[in-house]
């Protein structure tokens, strides 16, 4: 949740087994809206750059799927 979640995951990677991304309805509360789409993968990277690249790929694919499904 919140600002820079990928950096927080990397800094605390011993606490996590997975990372991912969601698309959700925007509400006044931070990251509290209904989840529309989500995806995750196993957290097993040697560098922050590898994690960041994988996170960006998951997010991009979620947006592509969202646009294909909901925008016509």
Structure commentary:
This protein is of the alpha+beta class. It is built from two helices and two strands. It has helices at 5-11, 48-70, and strands at 18-24, 35-42. The chain has a two-stranded antiparallel ribbon. The chain is globular, with a radius of gyration of 13 Å. The termini are far apart. The model has no long low-confidence stretch (mean pLDDT 91).
Compressed to H and E, one letter per element, the order equals: HEEH
What proportion of the residues is helical, as a percent range? 40-55%
- Using DSSP, what is the number of strands? 2
Poorly predicted segments: none
Cross-sheet strand order for the largest sheet: 1-2
**Alpha plus pi helix count:** 2
Structural class: alpha+beta
Cα Rg? 13 Å
C-alpha geometry: globular
Largest sheet: 2 strands, antiparallel
Summarize the structure.
Helix content is 42%, strand content 21%.
Walk me through the topology.
Elements: H1 5-11, E1 18-24, E2 35-42, H2 48-70
Antiparallel strand pairs: 1-2
Salient structural properties:
72 residues, 2 helices, alpha+beta, globular, 42% helix
């Amino acid at each position: 949740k919140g600002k820079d979640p990928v950096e927080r995951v990397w800094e605390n990677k011993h606490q996590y087994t997975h990372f991912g991304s969601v698309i959700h309805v925007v509400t006044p509360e931070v990251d509290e809206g209904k989840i529309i789409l989500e995806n995750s993968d196993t957290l097993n990277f040697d560098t922050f750059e590898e994690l960041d690249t994988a996170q960006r790929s998951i997010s991009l694919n979620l947006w592509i799927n969202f646009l294909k499904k909901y925008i016509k």
